[in-house]
Amino acid sequence: MADQDNNSIAFVATEVIPESPPPARETGVVKWLRENLFSSVTNTILTVLALALIYLVLKSTMPWILNGLWTTSSLAECREILDGTTGACFSVLTERWNQLIYGFKYPVEEYWRPNLAFLLMLVAIAPVLFFDLPRKLLIVTALFPFVAFWLIWGGTILAPLIALIGFIVAGAFFQKFGRNNFALGFFGAIVIALAIWSIGGSMIPEGASENALLPAVPSRDLGGFMLNMMLGLTCVSLSVPLGIALALGRQSNMPLIKGICVVFIEFVRGVPLITLLFVASVMLSYFFPPDATVDLFLRVVIMITLFSAAYIAEVVRGGLAALPKGQYEAADSLGLDYPQAMRLIILPQALKISIPGIVNVAVGLFKDTTLVSVISMFDLVGMIRGPILASTEWNGVYWELFGFAAALFFVVCYGISQYSQWLERKLHKGH
Amino acid sequence: MSELMSDREIDRSKMHVGSEVAIQIANMNKWYGSFHVLRDINLTVHEGERIVIAGPSGSGKSTLIRCINRLEEHQSGDIVVDGIELTNDLKNIDKIRSEVGMCFQHFNLFPHLTILENCTLAPIWVRKTPKKEAEEIAMHFLEKVKIPEQADKYPGQLSGGQQQRVAIARSLCMKPRIMLFDEPTSALDPEMIKEVLDTMIELAEEGMTMLCVTHEMGFARQVANRVIFMDQGQIVEQNEPEEFFNNPKSERTQLFLSQILGH
Ligand SMILES: Nc1ncnc2c1ncn2[C@@H]1O[C@H](COP(=O)(O)OP(=O)(O)OP(=O)(O)O)[C@@H](O)[C@H]1O
Ligand SMILES: [Mg+2]
């Protein structure tokens, strides 16, 4: 230290330093390029290689896409017009559009019904996805499953009506008794719902569906991308609550409940989905009463739901474990009971942590709905592999068809992933 | 430590000890596995008493006050809070918890709720207070702890001292008859310690029954009417603060006091 500084260890600020703006950032395209793409020799080489790769990919695909034909009526005609030049036969998509979307048995004059159901779906999921929308819209969400069921399957309106009444009465019962005694409310509600459904079901007259307002369409006539959407939406919305319940059950102090949940989760996670689907298609009928013909669609929904619920349970368990113990203790010390503490304090935080994982499972589930083509259901992939590729007109148009299927799934899954990122940002509350 | 204490006169007009018993602990024992954490605890707390629990780390102070609202379960002996015996009956436990407020070392506010929602949650769901009324009560107590202007912020946006005051307000919104504090100031910077202690002093002045685990000996001197010293899971000594600090009887207390005060 210099001599003259010896006695200046003590320091008192004599003036307040005024606030000043941060230094201006240098900008410009050239600067960005230099800093990010060509900052070093290795970086430059990698940049050049990457550009070359992109060029090669585009060079081989672009002529095929741009030269594609959209209006021919068969592969032979398409080949003839192309006359040896590269080009895609997208006309299979336009010509078989209805089959790709609705399957090949859904009556053409009834296409408006799934279309309407699709529009209603957009309204119904909006308030679930975006909390800022008016809460009254949730009524649409609650009614949607019953309306959609009636629209898509048609037949007597009594069936969805009885289902709805069962839910309403059970819900009202739970509201009234569940507050004081959770177990009584919960199991009472289940018993009441089952009773209403079985009594109501037996009261529907035999031929009720025959002259119904909307002609009945059996499940085996569903197909195409519509079937994937239906399976995906139904299974996701069922498996999230079931997964949460399983995760809570796994944390429970009651050994029996805990044991059941652990065994279930571990068993389902250890089995490939495809085997579960085979079980659904051939064996599950053993578990139902012999005279009940349980619909294949329902059996598949049960299996996919159970499968993804096990995964969601594990994701949610991770979220629950990540919460500090203090949150449970604070909720307890305020006198909240278990359902309240879970619903108001623990789950909102745990689910927020679990969003990426749940979305991951949901995206996977949606893509896995194509596996039903293996048990001869005609979903999008089933349609392509079966009726379309087997037809004489379009035998051999692989790239266009599977590319289309991939693109459809990509759009939906990318949308889901963007939504989840938006949601995470929105829920971030400065902690 | 003591120089942080309030410089103002403490108003003792309402700080009288009633004759009603608020908490009665008799021959209580607790084990963690085979480790005997609490040994034969006997303690009677009267309405309006302000008790400070002191003792070395690991002596079981937290465990003791956490047994009072059943965050920990005791294995033998009796605990009676406000006339209700603590058993495995969930109804009783929830009832006691709604009468006993608790403040933690790490505040434990709910980070996903605003300050106001933190304060109204339990009144609305446990006491079934209408939302409007619960918000009025919450604002009243937030004013009392001097942070009404933060009501719409989230806990993560507040300083430690502010968070702890919110935690106190959150407990008070349930209008508890007894308040438990587990080292409410030991995660705080000195400047914030004072604001939290001031809040606690005000509470004491209003006649609240309080049990505080704390290392703030200045607070104990000024506010407590009884100091309890624990070591190795046992209540070793209890006395009025004046006697306790000036004339400790047990050797272990003397050693503890010389360590904590005597540098
Ligand atoms: N969940 C637990 N399982 C096993 N042992 C525990 C558990 N919690 C606390 N202990 C032990 O019990 C003893 C008492 O803990 P306690 O937290 O009551 O001490 P304390 O007096 O509050 O200490 P401090 O001043 O450090 O907070 C300690 O020895 C601790 O290691
Ligand atoms: Mg402690």
TrEMBL record, chain A:
| Range of residues in the leader sequence | none
**Which Pfam family, an example, fits this chain?**
BPD_transp_1
Where does the source fall among the domains of life? Bacteria
| InterPro entries for this protein | AA_ABC_transptr_permease_3TM (IPR010065), ArtM/GltK/GlnP/TcyL/YhdX-like (IPR043429), MetI-like (IPR000515), MetI-like_sf (IPR035906)
| Membrane-spanning segments | 37-58, 111-131, 137-170, 182-205, 225-248, 260-284, 296-316, 353-378, 398-417
Is Transmembrane there in the keyword field?
Answer: yes
> Which GO molecular function, any one, fits this protein according to its record?
transmembrane transporter activity
Give the family, as the similarity comment puts it: Belongs to the binding-protein-dependent transport system permease family. HisMQ subfamily.
Protein's UniProt keywords contain Metal-binding = no
Q: What NCBIfam families does its record include? A: HEQRo_perm_3TM
Looking at the record, the residues that make up the ABC transmembrane type-1 domain are 225-420
Gene Ontology biological process: amino acid transport
Q: How does it sit in the membrane?
A: Multi-pass membrane protein
Give the organism the record lists: Shimia haliotis
Q: Where in the cell is it found?
A: Cell inner membrane; Cell membrane
What are the protein's UniProt keywords? Cell membrane, Membrane, Transmembrane, Transmembrane helix, Transport
Protein name as catalogued: L-glutamine ABC transporter membrane protein /L-glutamate ABC transporter membrane protein /L-aspartate ABC transporter membrane protein /L-asparagine ABC transporter membrane protein
The record's Gene Ontology cellular component field reads: ATP-binding cassette (ABC) transporter complex
For this UniProt entry, what is the primary localization, expressed as one broad class? membrane
From TrEMBL, chain B:
The cross-references to SUPFAM superfamilies, in alphabetical order and at most eight, read: P-loop containing nucleoside triphosphate hydrolases
Q: Which keywords label this protein? A: ATP-binding, Nucleotide-binding, Transport
Query: A Gene Ontology molecular-function term?
Result: ABC-type amino acid transporter activity
**Locate the ABC transporter domain: which residues?**
23-257
Tell me yes or no: is Calcium among this UniProt entry's keywords.
no
- Bilayer-crossing residues are none
Pfam families attached here?
ABC_tran
Q: Does the UniProt entry include the keyword Membrane?
A: no
The source's domain of life comes to Bacteria
- Please give the family membership noted in the entry: Belongs to the ABC transporter superfamily.
Q: What is this protein called?
A: L-glutamine ABC transporter ATP-binding protein /L-glutamate ABC transporter ATP-binding protein /L-aspartate ABC transporter ATP-binding protein /L-asparagine ABC transporter ATP-binding protein
Biological classification of the source: Bacteria, Pseudomonadati, Pseudomonadota, Alphaproteobacteria, Rhodobacterales
